[in-house]
Amino acid sequence: MKIVTENLTHIYDGKEVIKDINLSVEGVEAIALIGPSGAGKSTLLRLLCKIEEASVGNLFVNDVSVHDVEAKEYYKKVGFVFQSHNLFPHLSAIENITLVLEKVHKYSKDEAIKKANLLLEQFGLSEHSHKRPSQLSGGQAQRVSIVRSLAIEPEVLFLDEPTSALDPILTREVLRTILELRNQHKKFIIVTHELGFAKKAADYVIYMEDGVVIEEGKVDILDHPKTNKLRQFVEYVMD
């Protein structure tokens, strides 16, 4: 995975929420975006996803200019998982997965069902395949959302605090699923407050405060911070 940003700035409601960020990260599989609330982590993720367009600057994901690429084409190559699962409430778990495969990626119905079933089985969700989101626990629904994003075989999967709405037990359930992505060498960027999880799942960490990247580097910066700000954050969160 390769992520590059050049003088990236984003203004929302007259406020700079991303401030002149310059990143060049290459040869990593999993990036954790960490920092206090309001740091700009989710905004940076949305810019990388092309859900929002940057006010100033350029950004590239695997050498693709996110600004220049057509959204329709870009969304075929990347996956998203948000804080809430965003499953279609009137469709079953398997239908939520096959819909995207059939309508966007032009799979036949049989091909889509076969792929969806394989993924549901792989992630321990087969018994829930015909349940609607309202019949699933929060953790199960979020895991189905992850599987739906994986079904298109994305180059990069973007996850925005996927456990923030879950209780501790369901959080562990979803984090185990994301660790499985790591074991399978899937490429992903995750916004998370779970530093213990970040140490296990990420090989690169970007720490942000007030729209600025304060420190970045391999995951061991969480054990050996170079800046006082990251050191204080780690001590506070891990206390």
List the defining traits of the structure above.
239 residues, alpha/beta, 2 domains, four-stranded antiparallel sheet, 8 helices, 10 strands, globular
Describe this structure in words.
- By secondary structure, the chain is α/β, with parallel strands linked by helices.
- It is 36% helix and 26% strand.
- The chain has helices at residues 41-49, 71-74, 93-103, 109-122, 138-151, 168-183, 195-201, 228-238, and strands at residues 2-12, 15-26, 30-34, 56-61, 64-65, 78-81, 156-160, 188-191, 204-209, 212-218.
- It has a six-stranded mixed sheet with strand order 6-7-8-3-9-10, with helices on both faces. A four-stranded antiparallel sheet has the order 2-1-4-5, covered by helices on one side.
- The longest helix has 16 residues, at 168-183.
- The mean pLDDT is 93.
Distance between the termini: 32 Å
Number of strands: 10
**What fraction of the residues are assigned to beta strands by DSSP?**
25-35%
Residue stretches low in confidence (pLDDT < 50, at least 5 long) are: none
- The value of Rg in angstroms is 18 Å
Biggest sheet, spatial arrangement of strands: 6-7-8-3-9-10
